[in-house]
Amino acid sequence: MKLTIERSDLLNALSHVQNVVERRNTIPILSNVLMEAKGSEVTFVATDLDIEAVDSADATIATEGAITAPAGTLFDVVRKLPSGSDVELELNPENRRLSIRSGRSQFALPTLPSTDFQTMTGDDSAIQFDVAAADLRRLIDKTRFAISTEETRYYLNGVYLHVGDGDGGQKVLRAVATDGHRLALADTEAPSGSDGLEGVIVPRKAIGEVRRLIDQVDGDVSIGVSETKIVFRAGRAVLTSKLIDGSFPDYARVIPKGNEKRLIIDNKSFEAAVDRVSTVSAERSRSVKLSISEGRVILAVNSAETGHGHEEIECDYGDDEMEIGFNAKYLLDVTAQIEAEDAEFMLNDPASPALILDPGDAGARYVLMPLRV
Hints:
The chain is an alpha+beta fold. It has three domains: 2-116, DNA Polymerase III, subunit A, domain 2 (DNA Polymerase III, Chain A, domain 2, Roll); 127-253, DNA Polymerase III, subunit A, domain 2 (DNA Polymerase III, Chain A, domain 2, Roll), CATH 3.10.150; 261-368, DNA Polymerase III, subunit A, domain 2 (DNA Polymerase III, Chain A, domain 2, Roll). The chain is 16% helix and 43% strand. An eight-stranded antiparallel sheet has the order 6-2-3-4-17-16-15-10. It has an eight-stranded antiparallel sheet with strand order 14-11-12-13-25-24-23-18. A hairpin with a 3-residue loop joins β15 and β16 (229-234). It is elongated and about 80 Å long.
C-alpha cells in the first residue's frame, strides 16, 4: 500500500473515526484504524464492536492495499504535521511498518493485518429518513446532559428517539433523556419517512460521536434504523451503533401537568447567581435553596463544612411564597440550554417536580426533582 494525501483531508477523516476506539483495549487490533486504499480514495474504519465509524478521503494511490495502524498515535502524528502539507503513507513489506512522510518529518508505526480487523455486520434499515443537521444537533444538545451514568439502569444510558404527537397534534421527532432526577425533552418536526419510528435508545457514546461528526455539517443527515442498530450518514462519513436493548420508562407520566405557580426569571442573572452561591455547597448534595416571594428569589446555601452563600435577584412571581431546593449542577445544566432571556419555572409545591420552559424554544422542556433543604 502506498498513497499520497493532503494533510487536512487525512486529519478530517481520522478525526471522524478515531474517537470510537477505546484507549484501553484487551483486543489489540481494536486499538487500530483500518485503512484501505483503492481507486482514488482511502477509507478509514474504527470500531469498538458496539460502534463503527467509517470515513474516506481522496488520495493519489500508487499501490492499492489495506492495513491497520494505531488510531490514536496516527491521529496525533498527522495532527502535528504542518498545515497544507502532503502526507505519504507507505507500508514497508519487510518489517510491516507504516511509513509516514511529510516534508522533513518521517515516522514508522507498527501495524496489524487488515484480515484480522473485525467490522460490524450490517442490518437492513427498516426505517430511513433525512433530518437537517441543525435540527439533530439541537435535539442532542438539549437532551444529552440528562443521560444517566448509572450502569445498573442501562436503559437510561442513552437518548430515547421516537416519533410522537406534539402539543398541537402534529407529528414530531422527539429526543428524551433522564437519569431519574431530571428529564430533558426536545421536539422537532417529524421528517418525511420517519413515521414508523416507535422508539429506540441510542447509547451515550454514540450520541457523543454523532454530535462530533455533524458539528460542521450544513445539510441533511441520513438516519437508518433497524431492530438492533442505527446508522447516521453525513457526507462520506458513516456511523453505525448498536441500540440499547431495553424499555425506556413512560416519561410522559413524569412531566408535571398541574403546576400553576409561574416563576419568570432572567436566565443569565439566575445562572450566574446559582454558580456563585453553589461555590460553597457540599460537593455531594450541591443543593441550593430558592426562597421565592413576590418580585424576588433568594438563593441560599448552608453547609456546616464549607460555609454559607446567599444572593437575591429579581423575578416575576405573584403566587404564594415557597421554598424549594434543587441540585445546583442540574440547574446550571438546564439554564445553559435556555435560549430566551428569561427562564420560566412552573411550580406546584416544595416536594413536587418543577417544569422548566424556554420561551425561546417551545419544543424543549425540562423537569427537575426537588431536594430537601
